[in-house]
Here is the input.
Amino acid sequence: MADTNGQPEKPVDTGSPAAGNGSGNGPGNGSSAVAKVLADAKAVRARATEELKETIKAPEKTDVWKSILRVKHDETPRSRALGVLSNVFLHLHPAKINRDAVAYKYTWGMGGMTFYVYITLVFTGTLLMFYYHPSKIIAFRDILYLESDVPFGKLLRNMHRWGAHLMVIMVELHMFRVFLTGSYKKPREFNWVVGVLLLVLTLLLSFTGYLLPDDQLGFWAVTVGTNMARATPLLGHAGPFGPQLGMTPFNDVRFGLLGGSIVDSNALLRAYIWHCVAIPILASAFMVVHFWRVRKDGGISGPAPMMLEREIKDVRKI
Amino acid sequence: MDFHQLWTIVSTPDNVPIVLLLFLVPFYTWYGMRQAFANDRLIAELEANPEMAKTHHRKTQPYKTGWAKEVHVWPYLLRIEFLAAIIVTVILMVWSITLNAPLEEPSNPTLTMNPSKAPWYFLGLQEMLVYFDPWMAGVVMPSLIIVGLMVIPYIDTNPLGNGYYTYKQRKFSILTFIFGFIVLWVSMIVIGTLIRGPGWMWFWPGTTWDHNRLIFEVNRDLPDIFGITTRVPKIIFGAIVVGLYLVAAGIGIHKLITKTAFNRRIYARMSVLQYVVMQTFLIIMLALPVKILARLMFRIKYIWVTPWFNI
Ligand code: HEM
Here is the structure.
């Protein structure tokens, strides 16, 4: 290390005593070397400034830029299309869409906004995970600590809480819109089914998160909720035909959900894992399928031209 | 009027989404139906005038010949998405700055909350607990709701109204969905949130939540009203009554879906399986208001009493 560091200075080192010794003999020899070095430095500096100016003026011409964006972006239709198609985040969009499909009054933008709220929830949720331990006693203290001592902790928690509520409201309105526009009809039947699964997952996400602060509100809400599970027909110890099948509080579905016969530390841990790992993965996977299917089913369903009653074709009867 | 109580209920942080729902659902219902009626007027025009139906573009959206049918996603869609993201962020920020998420005392299994409520989106189901046993309200109904929603595309054989708002062309399905979504789901949530108080008792908005209130309600089982007291006749009687309901509801629904000429045309397109599935879900859905009315009007607790389950 020391060697290589010293090396560039060597020529300068040998040069300066020479210049100092023979100042009377050959002034031309020493000063010309210095002048050459200075001139070189100046040239390099000029070139660097030039290059820098060019980079600032047209950053899109640099290799780094090109390597990131892969295609040229200029004011041509082709380039606009490529800008969408060659971007991993945007390529779920087509390059062009039906001009009416962008009208707010048709889709209400609810699906897209649901997705956006989901992203903010993943973001704020990840930040919350840094301050939270899923164990009894500590969990509640973590929330208190989060609210009083963590910078913006309260805002973080509020955003996660209200975002969750907003997502539930939006997903229901999205479903309502899809129904009112008949968008579940051919060929989008299956995407509606995927949507119903997403609705269920959204509700489950919200519900499992309710227990995590481990306060009275969450505790009793989850107690009320999971008490219903013990009444599951066949599989719950208080449900129809449950006792006959040998169900007890210690082996029925409720026990499986809670990891115990009461809402306690195991239930907290289970809720945490479902809430922070399992359901988000499932929901994300289904969202990918959902968006993919919106594309594959021919994009947004409308506003489509109206069909009249007399145009109904009769179905083939067996 | 106890305005303090009213304010306490409405301003409970976790109730704010329901207050929001109270505005959003009617607004979007109006917003969607307004477009549906506008489209219906255009449909009526097109139906009356076959020439126009051939040449007209058939959309209420503004459209001029010569306009490109398609637009670039960048910028025409992405800018809207970007704007929507900003607006949602601002709303969420303002909401989170002005209103704090609730945090109660640490959980305590020995101290029951009264009323202890599920999160608001499950309050419709909790409200059903008043009328049905937990295995129905908590397990069977949610499962049926999920499966029932999933089969909608497969039992709706009406090809009209695909991709545009309309009421006229899909009266039956739209009314059914609005009944299920708004009457049975949203309004039950609203009742569960704003009206149910301690002991899950009914408190009209503005009355005080009296924790000592007792209601002496004698709910009777239907067989008891008819003087049937022994076990086996009770089972048989209940089964007969439920069977009668199934038949009556089935006939009623059949009448409804074959009422108009158009409805009969759609009905003719259904396969037997589609018809059976649709009837099953509609009969069960109709059972909810029937049971609710039976309780409210005749104070009937159970209709079918057996040693294993009660309905
Ligand atoms: C996490 C939940 C969900 C997300 C993030 C989501 C997202 C989206 C998005 C972004 C679209 C594009 C059109 C639009 O914005 O309206 C869409 C369309 C669609 N969604 Fe969802 N959705 C969700 C839940 C649901 C539910 C609950 C249903 C129905 C039960 C559903 C059924 C559909 C259908 C059928 C389409 C195609 C509509 C059309 O082509 O007009 N989705 N969804």
